[in-house]
Amino acid sequence: MRKAVLVTGASSGVGLALCKRLLEEDHELHLCLACRNRSKAEAVRAALLASRPLAEVSIVQVDVSDLQSVFRASRELKQRFQRLDYVYLNAGIMPNPQLNIKALFSGLFSRKVIHMFSTAEGLLTQEDKITADGLQEVFETNVFGHFILIQELAPLLCHSDSPSQLIWTSSRNARKSNFCLEDIQHSRGQEPYSSSKYAVDLLSVAVNRNFNSRGLYSSVVCPGTMVTNMTCGILPPFVWTLLMPIIWLLRFFANAFTLTPYNGTEALVWLFHQKPESLNPLTKYLSATTGFGSNYVMTQKMDLDEDTAEKFYQSLLELEKHVRATIQKRNHQS
Known about the structure:
The chain is α/β, with parallel strands linked by helices. It has 12 helices and 10 strands. Keywords: Endoplasmic reticulum, Glycoprotein, Lipid biosynthesis, Lipid metabolism, Membrane, NAD, NADP, Oxidoreductase, Steroid biosynthesis, Transmembrane, Transmembrane helix.
C-alpha cells in the first residue's frame, strides 16, 4: 500500500526540495501538495511526475492564513484519503523582514559572529498584520492554521495499529525570550517569526503528550540557514554577493549554513525513515552541512518545559472555540 504524505508549502523552497527528495527515497509514494497557488502547484506536479512516473502526486489548494480555506481543504482531504502517514507542516512566512544594520556590523567583528548568522538573533524584526480571521498573520500562517488542519485531519492521522507522523519546520531562531503565554500571537512584539517558531516547538511537544496514545507523533526540524525566497528579501542582492564568501568560510566553523533548500531538507528526509515512537519529543532535529558540503543530522534539546507546552495547547483550544463560533456566526449572517 502506498504511503500517503501531505506537504504544506510544497511549491517552492524547502517544501519543493523535500518533495523531490521524498520521491527519490520512495518513488511509489502518494504525495499530496498542499499549496496556496494552484497554477504553481500544477507546474510542480507535472515536473515531479516527469521525473518519477510511478509516483502518485495530487494537489489540495489551501492557504493556512485563511481558516475557511483550511476547513475546505480538510473536507476535501477526508474525502480523498483513508489515512495520512506523514504530514510535513512546512508552510510559513516572514513578512517584511527589517535588518538591524547596526547589530549586523557589530556582530561581524565580535566573537558571536557564527551564532549571529546561525540564528539571526537580534538581527531581524518583522511587520505583522491582521488577517481576515482577526488573527496576527505570522501566528495564523506558521502556527494556528496548521493546528486547525491537524484538528480537522485527526481521523486520518490517529490509527493505533500504525502510527502517523507530523514533522514541523521550525528554526534555530525559535527563542523562548520572544514568546509569551499572555500574548501567544506576539501582537505586542517585533519578532513574530521567532515567537511563532517557538510556539511550533511547544505545540509539537503538546501534540505528543495528547496524541501519542492515539498513534500520532510529532517532531520539529530546523533546515538551517538557507538562501530561499523567504530570506532573499532580507538584504539587497549586492549585500548577499558580499556576504556569501564569508558565509561559505563560516561553514568550516559552524554546521548551520546549509545554504540550499536541498541541503536544508536533510533532517526532514531522515525523519521519514525513523520509527516515530522511538524519537525524543523534546529534541529538535537540525539539518547540518560541513564546509565541504556533506549533509548530516544533529540533535538539540529544546529550551522549553512540558507544562508550558500544555498551557499553550489549552490556549489554542480556547482560541479554536472562539474562532469556530465567529465563523459559524458569520456564515449564518451571510
